[in-house]
Amino acid sequence: MSKRKWPEVPDFDGTPDESADEPSSTDAESEAEVDEPAAPAASNGSGPAQHADGELEVPDGYGVLEGAPRGERRAVGIVVSRFNGAITSELLAGALAELDRAGVTREAITIMPVPGAFELPLAAMALAKTRRFACIVALGCVVRGETPHFDYVAGEAASGLQLAALETGVPVAFGVLTLETADQAAERLDKGAEAVRTALEMADVFAQLRAAAAR
């Protein structure tokens, strides 16, 4: 997560410079023409807004293939990191609860714990290549430290999971938290359930696509 860069301002110790001349009318006009910095977008109080409101609108008259997060008769694989286990356990619990709500039975779910987020792509690829699962859900947590380790692990996890999906054609949902501090996890624990909904929706639309192609 990149840190917000605020506009640079000149140093000022709060003491007025009594020797300074009064500004001329030209200076005053120039200052009046300078735009004030735009206010940060509304958010949850922790920074600028990360998403735009509103729903996608598709014009009428077009064929649309759209999936839904349905889980009936679907087998789902979950790869989950043991590192930062207090957080990933919560992500897993949320994912399992969402799968239950979607109608996926316990017998249709396979959970593969791995050491850390770096190992998630390999595990996801292995599960996807079995062709036993309609989709894969990847859960993990990476917390920024004082070294570049965070950037390498987070980046490799994201690109590796995308590669697993692209190479196998099996949807792989990204449920990995990338945090500045572990305290931020409390507000993002719904990421596990969100990843499940994404995975099931993609599995459903792919099933529709295959059925349409077979007709």
Describe this structure in words.
The structure is a single chain. The chain is an alpha/beta fold and 215 residues long. The protein has a domain at 81-214: Rossmann fold (3-Layer(aba) Sandwich). 37% of the residues lie in helices and 13% in strands. Strand 1, helix 2 (85-101) and strand 2 form a beta-alpha-beta unit. Helix 2 (85-101) packs across helix 5 and helix 3 (120-129) runs parallel beside helix 4 (149-168). The radius of gyration is 24 Å and the shape is globular. The two termini are 46 Å apart.
Low confidence ranges = 1-46
The outline comes out as: globular
User: Percent helix among the residues?
Assistant: 25-40%
Q: Any idea what the CATH superfamily of the domain at 81-214 is called? A: Lumazine/riboflavin synthase
Query: Might you state the CATH topology name of the domain at 81-214?
Result: Rossmann fold
User: What's the CATH architecture of the domain at 81-214?
Assistant: 3-Layer(aba) Sandwich
**Secondary-structure element series:** HEHEHEHEH
Beta-strand proportion? 5-15%
Which radius of gyration do the C-alpha atoms yield? 24 Å
Question: Gap between N and C termini, in Å?
Answer: 46 Å
What topology, given as strand order, has the largest sheet?
Answer: 2-1-3-4
Count of helical stretches: 5
Briefly, what CATH class of the domain at 81-214? Alpha Beta
By secondary-structure content and strand pairing, the structural class works out as alpha/beta
Number of beta strands: 4
